[in-house]
Amino acid sequence: MADLPIRKVLQKLDVARRMARWAVELSEFDIHYEPRGPIKSQIYADFVVELYSAATHQEGAYFKWVLSVDGSSNQQGSGAGVILEGPDGLLIEQALRFAFKASNNQAEYEALIAGMLLAKEMGAKGLLAKSDLLLVTGHVTGEYQAKDPQMAVYLEYV
């Protein structure tokens, strides 16, 4: 059911070739148009309440500070990017280049640590940290064990 004028489009013979081909293809599936009936205003009110409650319970709605980190490593070196978003539209971006050779996992942990220290320095009380590396997020959330001794040291520091 829809309020869209699909019926008019599918019944016109002078539509573009492409639309006509689709109309022919769809005609074998026995599709019928039924207009949507009137929607009472209470449904709109319920929808707004549902939308508002979903927005306030989203992940991160409790946190005033959001930290996004990304670390990478290649033959030329390693580095990281840190973005810290605070209340009232505060945005702090940092690019880090490491003076030591690091793996992608180490670079990601270094970025997370740098971001957390920055958030602490800025006085953040609640922090939501985001990382695109599943290993690091798995370690921090407890889903994965840190079997590598070096990763275990990073995890303990975090």
Q: Which terms would index this structure?
A:
158 residues, alpha+beta, Nucleotidyltransferase, domain 5, 6 helices, 20% strand, elongated
Which helices and strands occur, and which strands form pairs?
Elements: H1 6-11, H2 17-27, H3 41-56, E1 65-74, E2 77-85, E3 91-98, H4 104-121, E4 127-131, H5 134-141, H6 149-157
Parallel strand pairs: 1-4
Antiparallel strand pairs: 1-2, 2-3
Helix pairs in contact: 4-6
Give a quick summary of the entry:
The chain has 158 residues and is an alpha+beta fold. The chain is built from 6 helices and 4 strands; from the N terminus they run αααβββαβαα.
Please state the CA-atom Rg, rounded to the nearest Å. 26 Å
CATH architecture of the largest domain: 2-Layer Sandwich
- First-last Cα distance: 52 Å
Tell me the count of domains: 2
The residue-averaged pLDDT reads: 78
Order of helices and strands: HHHEEEHEHH
How large a portion of the residues is in β-strands, by DSSP E?
15-25%
- CATH domain class of the largest domain: Alpha Beta
Number of helical segments? 6
Strand tally: 4
CATH superfamily of the largest domain: Ribonuclease H-like superfamily/Ribonuclease H
Shape summary: elongated
Strand order of the largest sheet: 3-2-1-4
- According to CATH, what is the topology of the largest domain? Nucleotidyltransferase, domain 5
